[in-house]
Amino acid sequence: MNVCKDKQLGSCVYCGKRKLSLLEGLSEEDLALLNNDRIIVKFRKGETIYKEYTKPIGLYCLNEGKVKLVKYSDNGNEVIIGLKKPVDFIDLETLLANEKYNHTAIALEDTSVCIITEENFRKVLSENCVFANKLLKNISQSLLDYNEWFVNITQKQIHARIAKTLLKLKEFYGLSDDDFLNVSLKRSDIAALSCITTANVIRTISAFEKENIIECDKKRIKILNHKKLEEISQY
Predict the structure, then answer these.
(1) What is the H or E stretch that residue 113 is in?
(2) Which of 125, 177, 186, 233 could make a disulfide contact with 164, Cβ separation 3.0–4.6 Å?
């Protein structure tokens, strides 16, 4: 983990990614306030960004990289309850609720996070009802999407779960320049997303390869037959 306190580095006021984030539409005055005392923290792949049962120290905005939000069962099994990409807020809900995290955030690749102080964030939030409504809408939609995903995925057969997970990853992260999914996940990560065992993922991925539905290059996956994968995901 590497911390940078240079206020001008990636300033909120001049950030080119802001147009893609929930900060779009804020005035320069609001952005300058958010930028005040903001820090940038860099994490290596696999590092923990924050742990379950700790309290937020501010608003985490994902600047670069990818993040998974995980919970652990009593026997240590990992369940991925969320994925994040630039320029998502990593966990807005816990900060607004003034609670401790009920999950752990882990970097899926080398990642850069801007941390805006809670005091400055709440000041902008309290004085800007349009911004507040935008955040509420975002939280509500995220909750609806997760509920739909969880109910849907747990009612499907194993092959359908993995097919649906691969399609979700394509929709969420897009494709790389060489048409692979733009995220590299371990088989255990795919299992944690699909709510099945890693062994089942390994067998199913191998079967999909033999049927020329996908192509694998270590952790990288390319969808070769999108139509077939869609059909499988319905079972």
Answers:
(1) strand 111-117
(2) 233
Nearest to 35 by CA among 56, 59, 57, 55: 59
Read off the pTM: 0.91
Q: Quote the tokens at residue 115.
A: 């941390």
How far is it, in rounded angstroms, from Cα 234 to Cα 156? Answer: 8
* Burial grade of 140 (CB within 10 A; 0-12, 13-18, 19 or more): exposed
Q: Which residue has the tokens 């062994």?
A: 199
The amino acid at 220 = R
Inter-residue contact 50 to 56 (CB < 8 Å): yes
Residue 223, token pair as written in the block:
């969808």
Angle at 219 between CA 61 and CA 60, to 5 degrees: 10
Contact 94, 81 (CB under 8 A): no
Q: Using DSSP, state whether 40 is helix, strand or coil.
A: strand
Q: At 92, list the tokens.
A: 């807005």
For 197-228, how does the pLDDT look when each residue is reduced to its tens digit (9 = 90+)? 999 999 999 999 999 999 999 999 999 999 99
Q: 123: which 2 tokens?
A: 């000041």
